[in-house]
């Protein structure tokens, strides 16, 4: 979000919390992209804020409740607030339990076990959700429309669109079992807490093979997750690289160093296998 939007978003979150009688006099920005993550103090509430219409906050709230009921390792909603979306000044605000971060970060073994528990719990929840192919369609729409990705070269537009289409076919032809997934269980969406790893940002949940989720995590995590189809994982990793590349070229993308990231992802796709994980690409760009 731009600074003027951040100011308004903070005001919306503090207003929502104050309306519930929660003591709030300050807000710390924890993360800023298309959504804003805040720590409200002194009430210690984790608030997530997005523009109305650019989120599926009600879906996220309902799903979080369902997953918590079956024992999934997800960040719970703020117990002092009604479990709903609060609308203020064009923003959708959701309120969650705040956890003090603990160190060290989540180990690969613990992350794999938590993700396995999440997937097991998700198999118990029957809730309408998008399919992972909807994400491919969104990426294809960005690539196909020069007005949405004006800085993407024509040759790269053809290359990226073709790669997305071919990967969709290849993955679907495998006919793998599908279930409810997190959608983006990368390290940025995993909290390290005294209660163990907890997953956040459930807006991205979709149905697909578990390898689609595993394509978002580090290789070391995959090594501890049982019964992976390595061929399918390789295709899903390539798919994730291609989708993220498309989003980084979208006009108005607010990802830090997004254009540089998009260029690097295109280079990786051209280079071919072995396919790196997203965290590997990120570390490469961040340097030593």
From TrEMBL:
GO molecular-function terms, A-Z: transferase activity
Keywords, comma-separated and alphabetical: Transferase
Coiled coil (residue ranges): none
Tagged with keyword Plastid: no
Domain of life assignment: Bacteria
The enzyme's E.C. designation: 2.7.1.-
Aminoglycoside phosphotransferase domain boundaries: 48-225
Statement: the UniProt record of this protein carries the keyword Transferase: yes
Pfam families referenced in this protein's UniProt entry, alphabetically: APH
Protein name: Aminoglycoside phosphotransferase family protein
Organism this protein belongs to: Streptomyces johnsoniae
């Amino acid at each position: 979000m731009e600074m003027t939007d951040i100011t308004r978003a903070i005001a919306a979150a503090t207003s929502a919390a104050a309306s519930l009688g929660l003591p709030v006099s300050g807000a710390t920005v924890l993360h800023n992209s298309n959504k804003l993550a805040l720590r409200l103090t002194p009430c210690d509430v984790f608030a997530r804020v997005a523009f109305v219409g650019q989120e599926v906050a009600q879906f996220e709230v309902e799903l979080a409740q369902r997953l918590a009921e079956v024992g999934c390792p997800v960040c719970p909603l703020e117990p002092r607030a009604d479990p709903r979306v609060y609308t203020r000044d064009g923003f959708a605000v959701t309120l969650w339990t705040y956890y003090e971060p603990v160190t060290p970060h989540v180990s690969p073994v613990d992350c794999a076990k938590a993700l396995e528990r999440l997937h097991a719990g998700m198999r118990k929840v029957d809730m309408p959700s998008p399919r992972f192919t909807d994400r491919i369609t969104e990426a294809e729409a960005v690539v196909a429309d020069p007005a949405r990705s004006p800085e993407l070269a024509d040759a790269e537009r053809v290359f990226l669109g073709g790669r997305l289409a071919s990967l969709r076919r290849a993955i679907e032809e495998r006919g793998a079992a599908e279930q409810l997934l997190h959608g983006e269980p990368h390290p940025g969406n995993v909290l390290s807490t005294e209660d163990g790893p907890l997953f956040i940002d459930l807006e991205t949940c979709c149905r697909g093979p578990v390898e689609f989720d595993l394509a978002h995590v580090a290789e070391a995590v995959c090594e501890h997750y049982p019964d992976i189809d390595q061929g399918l994982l390789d295709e899903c990793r390539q798919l994730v690289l291609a989708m993220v590349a498309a989003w980084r070229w979208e006009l108005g993308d607010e990802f830090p160093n997004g254009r540089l990231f998009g260029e690097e992802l295109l280079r990786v796709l051209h280079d071919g296998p072995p396919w790196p994980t997203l965290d590997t690409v990120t570390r490469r760009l961040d340097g030593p």
